[in-house]
Amino acid sequence: MKIPFLDLKQVNAPYMDALKDAASAVVESGWYIRGSYSEKFEKEFAAYSGYAYGVGVGNGLDALSLMLRAEIELGRLAPGDEILVPANTYIATVLAVNAAGLVPVLVEPDERTFNIDPTKLADACTEKTRGILAVHLYGRLADMPAIWNFAKDRGLLVFEDAAQSHGARFDRPHLSSLVSRLSSNAVAYSFYPTKNLGALGDAGMVVTDDAELARVVRMLGNYGSEQKYVNRYRGVNSRLDEIQAAFLLAKLPHLDSWNARRREIAARYCSEVKNPVVRLPEIPADPREHVWHVFTVRVPDRATRDALQKHLESRGIGTLVFYPIPPHLQEAYAEAAEGTLLPVNPDFPIAESMAETVISIPVSQVLTDDQVSEIIGALNEFVC
Question: How many CA atoms lie within 13 A of 211 on its CB side?
C-alpha cells in the first residue's frame, strides 16, 4: 500500500467541477485582481474566523510582515522594537518580523503542546519588547488566554501566525472575561496549497477587528495606495488575485468537515499506537482547539528518527520533518547580531531537541480507514 504524506491531486479531485466553474467564472468576468471574488472571500473568511475585517494578500509571509508594518505606520510599533516569537517555528515567522524592521526574540516552546511557552515569556522580555507573535504550530492553538493576560499586564501587542490552524477554535463561553472576545491585534493566514484550506497557488490574508489596521494593510499591499496614483506609504505589490479567491470560496464550506476527519484520524493514532518509542502528541481537552494540520510525534533521538523514517518508507508511508533546523541555527542567521536580526542567545535546547526528534505522518482528510490502520500497524511494528 502506497500512502503519500499528502496527495493534493486527491485532495482536490472531489471538487474539480466546482474549481473549474470558479476558474471559468473569473476568466469570463474580465476582472482578475481585487474584484468581487476577493471581496466576498475576505468577508466570508473573516466572519468564519470570528473577525470583522479580512484583507487578502499574496501569501502567508506577506500577511505576517504587512500586519506588523501596518502597526508601525500607525505608530503602535517602531523600527527596532522586539517581538517575542517561538524558537521552533518555521523561519517565515522570523523573516516577517525582520522584514517589518523589527527584532525577533526567540522563546522556547512548551514540550507538551509544541507552541510558545507562556511561562518563559517574562524571561525573554526587555525594555524594547513591544509585542508577541504566537504561532499555532501543527494546527493546535497556542495558549492564547495566558498570552493575552501576559500581554495585557505589560502593555504588549499580540499577533497570531495561523498559517497552520484554519478552523481551530476556543470554547469561548468558558473563557475568562478578559478573553471572552477576540483579543489579538491581527491574525495572519496562509492559503498555500498544502494548508487545511489551500488555494491552488499562493495566497494569504490578515484578519482583524481593527478597521484602521485593515485599511493600512490593504494600502501597503497595493503599493501604499488607496487612491490610484496617490501613494501614502512605501508599499509593496501583494494582493489576493481573483482566481485564488474563487477557488478558496469553493472550498471554504468543506473546511469544517475536513478538519473533523483529521480529528478522527488523530484520535485513532493517539488511541491505537502503542509503541513506547513513539511519543504521541496531546489531544487538547477541547478538541476544536486542534485541526491537525500535521500529526507530529517524537522519538528519543535523531538516529531513532532516521530509522523510523526508513521503516515507514519501506512500507510505502510518506513522512516529513517540521522542522529539521530551528531558525537560530539556519545559515541565514549565522552572523546575526544583537539589535539587527536575532538577539545573540544561542541557548534553545528544547527547540533544538525537537528539531532532532520530531517526525510527521500522514493525516489528511482523504486517508481511508485502511490506510490509517496500515500506518498504525507500521508504527507499532517499529523496533529501533
Answer: 0
CATH classification of the domain holding 50? 3.40.640.10
Q: What angle do CA 333, 339, 341 make, to 5 degrees?
A: 20
Query: Of all helices (H) and strands (E), which one includes residue 39?
Result: helix 36-49
Q: Which amino acid is at 119?
A: T
Give me the average pLDDT of each 10-residue run along the chain (384 residues): 96 98 98 97 96 97 98 97 96 96 95 97 96 98 95 96 95 43 82 98 97 98 97 97 98 98 98 98 95 98 98 98 94 68 72 97 98 98 94
**pTM higher than the cut 0.90:** yes
Q: Check if the beta carbon of residue 23 is closer than 8 Å to that of residue 248.
A: no
Confirm whether 2 is domain-assigned: no
Q: How many domains does the chain have?
A: 2
With a CB cutoff of 8 Å and minimum separation 6, the contacts of 117 are: 107, 108, 109, 110
Strand partners, 107: 86
Alpha-carbon distance of 230 to 287, in angstroms, equals 48
Query: Residue 359 contacts by C-beta under 8 Å, 6 or more apart in sequence?
Result: 296, 297, 298, 299, 305, 308, 309, 319, 320, 321
Q: How far apart are CA 133 and CA 159, in angstroms?
A: 5
Give the residue carrying C-alpha cell 517565515.
92
Same domain? 349 vs 366? yes
SS3 at position 157: strand
Task: Please report whether residue 1 resides in a domain.
Answer: no
Domain endpoint, select from 231, 251, 271: 251
Q: Which residues of 179-200 are buried (b: 16+ CB within 10 A; e: fewer)?
A: beebbbbbbbbbbbbbbbbbbb
The whole-angstrom separation of Cα 84 and Cα 164 is: 19
Regarding whether 279 and 328 lie in a shared domain, the answer is yes
Residues 168 and 142 in one domain: yes
Supply the pLDDT for residue 53.
97
Whether residues 290 and 240 fall in one domain: no
In this structure, are 313 and 343 located in the same domain? yes
Q: Other C-beta atoms within 10 Å of 381: how many? A: 10
C-alpha cell belonging to residue 246: 474563487
Gyration radius (Cα) of the chain, Å: 21
Residue ending a domain, among 190, 222, 251, is: 251
Domain that holds residue 268: 254-381
Nearest Cα to 333, choosing from 95, 61, 86? 95
In a domain, 201, yes or no: yes
